[in-house]
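Lab notes, practical 5.
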Amino acid sequence: VQLQASGGGLVQAGGSLRLSCAASTSINSYRMGWYRQPPGKQRELVAASGATTVYGDSVKGRFTISRDNAKNMVYLLMNSLKPEDTAVYYCHAQLYDIEYWGQGTLVTVSS
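Output from the prediction step:
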């Protein structure tokens, strides 16, 4: 599976962005998610959608993950952005113990 993330950019604090992830194959059976890696920090889970939907504690209530299986697309709507949301955001796909990563898209939130 090849994953192509897009939609990153520079936004002011309090603003919104929507990230998109295009998969090269059907994602029906995959757990799809978004991870992020802030500067100088480890990669962390942002949100994932599979049998259940989960969110990282720091984004609950602000971010929403959605998927369109018919289009092989996954989205991340990010509202009320904060400077600490600045990171490279990665699209992720998992089927059992097989994982795939996209190339990442940079989100920068200015204060």
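Observations recorded by the TA: The first strand starts at residue 3 and ends at 6. The two ends are 36 Å apart (CA to CA).
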